[in-house]
Automatic annotation (TrEMBL), chains A, B:
The lineage of its organism: Eukaryota, Viridiplantae, Streptophyta, Embryophyta, Tracheophyta. This is Calcium permeable stress-gated cation channel 1. Residues 744-760 have a biased composition (Polar residues). Residues 199-361 form the CSC1/OSCA1-like cytosolic domain. Keywords: Calcium, Ion channel, Ion transport, Membrane, Transmembrane, Transmembrane helix, Transport. Coiled coil: none annotated.
Length: 770, 770
């Protein structure tokens, strides 16, 4: 058991490393040549341009204004300054609501921390159980503050039960308010938004095959009959997966060509050569530039051919379509109703944003999806509980003996003492770490296999799985100190009322471990996030070897995005720890509060200056966030029931079970009350929006606006190349680069979402909406 | 352990009692004076009239045609003769589909029985385990045929696993086919049906209060705005609960008045007297006829006053309304979509049939419903697991000592040996039996408290609860031979993999008990059902004391109805027993098959000749039936896993767990594939029906047709009294009473469902549907 002193030292080290990261960030961000790494969002919005246009050569790369270094923590208040409404406008609702997860952490845990320190810490500290029990051992200070210090059967435990009620009620109150707020924000966002194609469009899947009609005709006839007053137009979905692959391949070849051409232009004496074999390691030597030019030409031909084929071949038309309606009301009605007798045909659903569509999955038939879900559920079960088996076998191979057996020729090398110790010390850990790094990717692939049709739903599903994995393997794994497989065994062999005891007894003992975990993963990890080391390195590499034009430089930026599927489950772990330890070891709470505070500031900065969201789901993830905080509450109740039953206070169990039942009821109440706002679109809202828009802008012709909104991005990209010039000119005439601080924070229509509507001509309507 | 001989004797006794019941029924049904008890359905449809019109006095009461007694089992083939389509027309889809539950039992268990006897019985019988183990004891013949006879760790158990797979797959196949069939029948029924008000109507609840407008105005404005093209009319719901009570009270007084008047007319010498106190036991003696006449007059005044109040007072208008649309499409859209931002306001749902509405619950607000559900869930938990506590305390009171203590004045009476033995032998059992008889009523009251708005959903909810109660207290209670409370204790204290063992070991030992149970409850119980002893007695009592006119006689008939909430859970118990014992003790299967066969014939007869369904939910209960058979499958898997793990064949567990996972997946698949047909109304169907009807009968004016469809039955009843004459005349002109057998089976539009549409004038339409 660590003493308060040990924890203090660990806290010091982690605070220091966090401070170093923040300092490094503060210095790096002021250097002009890093500007595109730390402020890509503003570049993408066209509100900031490369600093290379003015000033001396040195100034282009290094900031020599020493006054700016003195205010190196300035970014923090700056990040907090932007009001929420502006933030929504600037970065989208998803990002703004994502920040509220940290905020809700603060809202929940700051009062709980104060209450716990005011009530529970004195109650725990004024006992002498541990002193009596452990006369020989120096008792840990932290344990003195925890529930372990209260003697068995003491009436003081009623304080803990009352506090458990207080904490649960407070959390539920905050959750309720927040759910209401987010639901309103979502509806407000949907109302206040500009016209967007997905408001009028429904994704129809599993169109039944018809021997006499093409898919397009079947769709048109069906909707003309069943939605006669509101149907407007539709676009069938093409299977352009192969085409997309070819285009991607050509792009990579083009990058290499650029690289070699740049190399040649710098050193005209020698034409660059390359080998044609695997990764350029072996094979025939050829002239790299010529080789790539011919390759690209070949690919271009292939692409043209494939493009032709996709557009003509009826086999490449998938039984799915995006159907657009004359009004939001029509789309809302179609999305929420069942169309056909057979509920697995003509499946209608709100169309995701065009950016959000996951095109590869649009053609999977219903039965196949049902089977895929089963397979993935079983696979995930095995992944969670048995992942340790392959890892362990690889680890066995990664020992000295294993390696010598597998690759005898390496024997001489391995026997060197230094290498030997490295292998023994690091390799097994690295294998596990590698697995954990790839886990989100594995989970994402699993979700893709399940057939979700939008990127946002893929990420939500992956997040759920990642959370469950963390709950079982990180939380329970650390508490019960065994692999998930051992746990499964334990739980199967234990009786139902032994399980909470096992957890409850172990929880207070692992407090110091989790405090260290919070500091390393939470404090230092978050501080490292803001440094953006990987994008920084990659940007400078690309900038050196590939960039020729301003456009290339834009492409070299990698702002990244929030990646909900990795980030949110990690936050949830802190909610879980905070809830479980709130009544047991209140000492842990301040560490959680610091985490939430720091993370809030850091991510607010990142969202304002760096991340570029790939899609907008209008906070569709909030029900998941809400549900997982409820799970944290329930786990805390189970742990407390177990703990108190070992403390000879079994009569507490009914009280805490009541609390758990009330919590579950609260969850169900919230689900019925607020979840529909995230799943359905109320007709009242749709009518309101329709009426407003009709009054404001009655001549707008929807049909051409919606006609091409949902074409596969491969086709769009090629069109973009031609249209881009026009768009750019328009944008440039609107936007004047400015250095004024206030201007930097002022919202301007985002280039991404505004482009398509701006570039379309406003024609005379063919049909007016009745 | 009973031998085959014992079982044979028990079977003989039960078969004999079943035969006696059937014989009594066969004789009683032929007597003309019982005609209205055994053929009320035909009287209600107007296809049969009292046999008193012709023939001699004796013939009116006793059937003297001895030939008819010779064919006393004739009703059986007769009951089976009516084809299903005619049955649907005659008794409604609910009844026809209810019969399919018995049919599905036959479809599942007949092949399983053959397979089990062909494969499992020989495999079990050709072992000698029991003979070796029990050399002293005479081993039971039944156990020799069961899985207990196979030695531990034998490879023969693989036969049982393969059979478990075969039985599960066969059951799932039958279930799938049946679900498809029933879903199609439901849709077919909805399509082929005549115009019915509920097809156009949506029940709107939780209309938000508006300070400026009445509920009626708010509803009208809301739907004119949000469903501008399809909204037609609406009816607000009045709180007429008090009025209904008064009317009911008056009716009962009227009955008494009739009784006394009849008494007086038979014996003019003495005017009947009565006491005014409780149940007429004490109080002032008054003239009964005068007393009732004044009472009725007083009530009539009160009713008129209350009626006035309900119609005028805005407080008696509830925030709910039945909103009707111009087309089925409009109603389908409104029922399936969310109307308002706040999903707890403007709740829309398909309106139940007018007969099916449960008026008392229409005004409960959303939050109150959420709280009521919680309370009832907790109450049901305690009812299931702790019901034995109050019963036991009452039983303790019902012993000799308890009674003497509670009521010392009874001491002398109790000490009489005969009464003493009766009390000791029967009273404790009777207390439990009384509780079990009232259980469905208790569950129904609980469902009503939860706020369901239709009688059919009330019955479905009660059925679910009754099933769970039976599963825990009858099945598990008999298997583990302890009260549910003991079980709860056992399960909490046992580890997760001990629980299946506990069940698995006990299951084969209880086989003979369940065989007896099936014979008593299933065979003899079903045969007693057809005798209808209670309605028979009540009818003759009423006929003697109350009936003056033909109309009174009609009211004295009590055909009853299927009462899904009691019947279905009882059938499900047989599915459960069949599934669990199919692999373990195949001897039990023929008893199950006989039950399903007998019950099918009996209930088919009852549905054709007796029951008069109170409502039509178009087989909305099928998903519940399907789900519970799946539960039976899963319980059988758990029991087999437990059993085999005690037989040293633990490696079977993964195989059977796989089977259980597949079964769960099958359930989810079916749920997604077929359940929507029972919850939603596809737009395609609605459009088809609308178009057809518009083409066929374009001048029909919907508005007056729907205007008064959903008024509270109290108002309707009073109107009926005035209108009835007209309806009767119309009906009589159509229907000529006939004695021809074929005519008796020919469907004719039911009086109940056809009346309202026939009695309404076909006016010129005000609006034509666009």
């Amino acid at each position: 058991m660590a003493t308060l002193g040990d924890i203090g030292v660990a806290a010091g080290i982690n605070l220091l490393s966090a401070f170093v990261f923040l300092l490094a960030f503060a210095i790096l961000r002021l250097q002009p040549f890093n500007d595109r790494v730390y402020f890509p969002k503003w570049y993408l919005k066209g509100l900031r341009s490369s600093p290379s246009r003015s000033g001396t050569f040195v100034k282009k790369f290094v900031n020599l204004d020493f006054r700016s270094y003195l205010r190196f923590l300035n970014w923090m208040p700056e990040a907090l300054k932007m009001p929420e409404l502006e933030l929504i406008d600037h970065a989208g609702l998803d990002s703004a609501v994502y920040l509220r997860i940290y905020l809700i952490g603060l809202k929940i845990f700051v009062p709980i921390t104060f209450l716990a320190w005011a009530v529970l810490v004195p109650v725990n500290y004024t006992n002498k159980t541990l002193e009596l029990q452990l006369k020989n051992v120096t008792s840990s200070d932290i344990d003195k503050l925890s529930i372990s210090n209260v003697p068995d059967g003491s009436d003081r435990f009623w304080t803990h039960i009352v506090m458990a009620y207080a904490f649960t009620f407070w959390t539920c109150y905050v959750l309720l308010k927040e759910y209401e707020k987010v639901a309103n924000m979502r509806l407000q966002f949907l109302v206040s938004e500009k016209r967007r194609p997905d408001q009028f469009t429904v994704l129809v899947r599993n169109v039944p095959p018809d021997s006499d009609e093409s898919v397009s005709e079947t769709v048109e006839h069906f909707f003309l009959v069943n939605h006669p007053d509101t149907y407007l137009t539709h676009q069938v979905v093409c299977n352009a997966n192969k085409l997309a692959k070819l285009v991607k391949k050509r792009k990579s070849k083009q990058n290499w060509l650029d690289y070699y051409q740049l190399k040649y232009s710098r050193n005209n004496a020698k034409r660059p050569l390359m080998k044609t074999g695997f990764l350029g390691l072996w094979g025939k030597k050829v002239d790299a530039i010529d080789h790539h030019i011919t390759e690209i030409k070949k690919l271009s031909d292939e692409i043209a051919e494939e493009r032709e084929r996709v557009l003509k071949d009826p086999k490449s038309i998938m039984p799915a379509a995006f159907v657009s309606f004359k009004s939001r009301w029509g789309a809302a009605v179609c999305a929420q109703t069942q169309q056909s007798r057979n509920p697995t045909l003509w499946l209608t659903d709100w169309a995701p944003e065009p950016r959000d569509v996951y095109w590869q999955n649009l053609s999977i038939p219903y039965v196949s999806i049902a089977v895929r879900r089963l397979i993935m559920a079983v696979a995930f079960f095995f992944l969670t509980f048995f992942f340790i088996i392959p890892i362990a076998s690889v680890q066995a191979l990664a020992t000295i003996e294993g390696l010598e057996k597998a690759a005898p020729f390496l024997k001489a090398l391995i026997e060197i003492p230094f290498i030997k110790s490295v292998i023994q010390g690091f390799l097994p850990g690295i294998v596990l770490k590698l697995f954990l790094i790839f886990l989100p990717t594995i989970l994402m692939i699993m979700s893709k296999f399940e057939g979700f049709t939008s990127i946002s739903s893929l990420e939500r599903r992956s997040a759920t799985r990642y959370y469950l994995f963390n709950l079982v393997n990180v939380f329970l794994g650390s508490v019960i100190a065994g692999s998930a497989l051992d746990q499964l065994n334990t739980f199967l062999k234990q009786s139902a009322n032994e399980i909470p005891k096992t957890i409850g007894v172990a929880v207070p003992m692992r407090a110091t471990f989790f405090i260290t975990y919070i500091m390393v993963d939470g404090w230092a990890g978050i501080a490292a996030e803001i440094l953006m080391l990987k994008p920084l390195i990659i940007y400078h590499l690309k900038n050196t070897f590939l960039v020729k034009t301003e456009k290339d430089r834009e492409e070299a930026m990698n702002p990244g995005s929030l990646s909900f599927n990795v980030g949110e489950p990690r936050i949830q772990l802190y909610f879980l720890l905070g809830m479980v330890y709130a009544t047991v070891t209140p000492v842990l709470l301040p560490f959680i509060v610091v985490f939430f505070g720091l993370a809030y500031v850091v991510f607010r900065h990142q969202i304002i200056n760096v991340y570029n969201q790939e899609y907008e789901s209008a906070a569709a993830f909030w029900p998941d966030v809400h549900g997982r905080i409820i799970i944290a509450l329930l786990v805390s109740h189970v742990a407390l029931i177990g703990l108190l039953s070992t403390k000879h206070l079994a009569q507490a169990a009914p009280l805490l079970i009541t609390l758990a039942v009330l919590t579950i009821w609260f969850y169900r109440f919230c689900k019925a009350r607020y979840e529909p706002a995230f799943v359905r679109y109320p007709l009242q809202e749709a009518v309101m929006k329709d009426t407003l828009e009709r009054a404001r802008d009655s001549n707008f012709n929807l049909k051409p606006y919606l006609q091409n909104a949902y074409i596969h991005p491969v086709f769009k990209e090629e069109d973009d190349d031609e249209e881009e010039e026009v768009v750019k000119l328009e944008n440039e005439s609107v936007l004047v680069p400015t250095k004024r601080q206030s201007r930097r924070n002022t919202p301007v229509p985002s280039k991404m979402s505004g482009a398509s509507s701006q570039s379309l001509p406003e024609a005379v309507p063919e049909h007016s909406v009745p």
